[in-house]
Amino acid sequence: MLKVIDAVVEFAGGTRALDGVSMEVEPGETVAVVGESGSGKTTLARAILGLQPLKSGQVEFHGEVQTGVRARLAERVGMVWQDPYASIDPRWRVERIVREPADLMGKTLDVPALLTSVGLEPAFATRYPHEMSGGQRQRVAIARALALRPPLVICDEPTAALDLSVQAQILNLLQDIRAELGSAFLYISHDLGTVRYLADRVIVMQNGKIVEQGPSESLFENPQQPYTQALIAAQPRIEQLGVIPG
Fold first, then answer.
1. CB atoms < 10 A from the CB of 225, how many?
2. 165 and 192 in contact (C-beta within 8 Å)?
3. Superfamily, domain 2-235
4. CA 59 to CA 7: how far, in whole Å?
5. Average pLDDT for 202-209
6. Is the pLDDT of residue 238 over 70?
7. pLDDT tens digits, residue range 96-126?
8. Considering only CA atoms, which of 124, 209, 198, 130 is closest in space to residue 159?
């Protein structure tokens, strides 16, 4: 479905945010991209969408080379950004926000059904973003990404700005959507706990390069690269908290 071939993104001063990155996403698969801040994860997402020009390499959807922001991209890829407070227009009501991809493509959309599918009451269609919680806003962002039922959905740290209890709700929602629509997901995160829960396959990035990749369970159980081992070792564990008397 998606193929990235030797992608290079270079910023001012010669810094390479992506340095020869190649990866694939198969139909119906959830692939996670992990790494510390600055490893190139979000740059990869922007390059796939055509928002970040490549110095060299290419991006393909179903074998067709993607150059820049192509017409009708919203039918192919849905995008859920990290911050639900910044990714949707505060001046628009929810109905207009989730209808935007359909309007761009000249299509009609059943807004009440779409909101229901992401766990929101149809009455939310008349609300403004400031009238909702962070979790509700992120559900609106997910609804917008799914409006045209795209075969690929990219999620860039979709739970990072949310409370833990809300994070769990959003993760379960993404699992349900994947099961219902059969969409493939590219899930970008530094939270290895959520990655292990969601992903079929994991790609580990460091300094703009892929240093390790493989099936989720085998990578977590037997990481080969020291960087991957360090990331997994840095995960907080409940037993580290100990017991507080009283």
1. 14
2. no
3. P-loop containing nucleotide triphosphate hydrolases (3.40.50.300)
4. 8
5. 96
6. no
7. 999 999 998 999 999 999 999 999 999 999 9
8. 198
